[in-house]
Amino acid sequence: MRAAASTPSTPARNGPAHPRATVLYGLGLLTAGGCLFWTFRSVDLSRAWNAVALLGPALFLTFLPFSLSVGFDGLAWSRILSTLGRGVAPLRLAAIRLITEALCISLPGGILLAESLKPVLLEKRHGVPLDEGVSVIAARKWSIILAHGLYLGLATLLGWQFLATSSQRVLGVSGLPRLAMGAAVALFAIAAVSRWLIRGGLAGRLGGLLRRIPLRPLRRWVEARELAFRQADGHLGRALAPRNLGPPALFHLAMWLTESAESFLLLRLLGFDVAWSDALAIEAVMSVLKVLVFFVPAGLGVQDAGYAAFIAGMSGSQALHLAAAFTLVKRSRELFYLGLGYALLLLRTRRARHLQSAAAA
Hints:
It contains 16 helices and no strands. It has 361 residues and is mostly helical. It starts with 10 loop residues before the first helix and ends with a helix. 80% of the residues lie in helices and 0% in strands. The protein has one domain.
């Protein structure tokens, strides 16, 4: 018995976004617009564009780190699938990452839509049963959280002095590195508790709790899927077994580190004499900020204000237009990969329709 009935449906069946999701998305856009306006209200855009133009062909090098980051995510994902006896090429999984990330950024309720689409794409394109796909997505999320904690802790230790100095200059206190280390500890705690719950049969316990609710239709629904709950626990147990934890977490740590390499490379190209540890610390703090403002698409505006605050301490009178140039390149890269994600989605949709037509004929 498979868990297809209990897993998320395809986006086409989900209908329009929930009004709350639309309102939250609108609030995120307003927040992004307000932060962008406030941060760059007096910027000389011509100077910013000139700074970008001076990069020349080297500009395209700044697109490479994110490509490597997506590749490392694909490797981690593929390794998790292999623990369940499924062989899917990392590049194909990287394509799923690009598709779902494009939807996550650009649509109201995109986070939920993207997460529900991942196991569906795994089944439709790669033959991974939905119950296994959902378990793999949960294991991947756990690995990313653990690696995020490692990354944030490492970045804070290496960039402690830089973060303390920047915090004192911008906020008037030097406590930013302590907050960052606290966030790293919190991520470790979340990973530890999550693994304990999952390894203890979380899905089965959830099913048991649902059966206690005195609603006959709900109890019938749970009883019909009792096997699916047990299967989910088994899949997660195998994926998160101690012998299987290391490689995915290391690949995801590499994913986070290569995202920092993008900021380091871009700052260097713009003329900043920045150390690798400083760029690592900046990007690590921005990764936490992006999580905190989850309702803002891609952290737009909020992250840019954060980058501008850090850059102001490194470039004096040129801070604003160089921060704007940094933002232009960063967001241009995101737009490029967003377009690539939609292009991949369109190609997969057309291919699926072609195969359906061929089968019908």
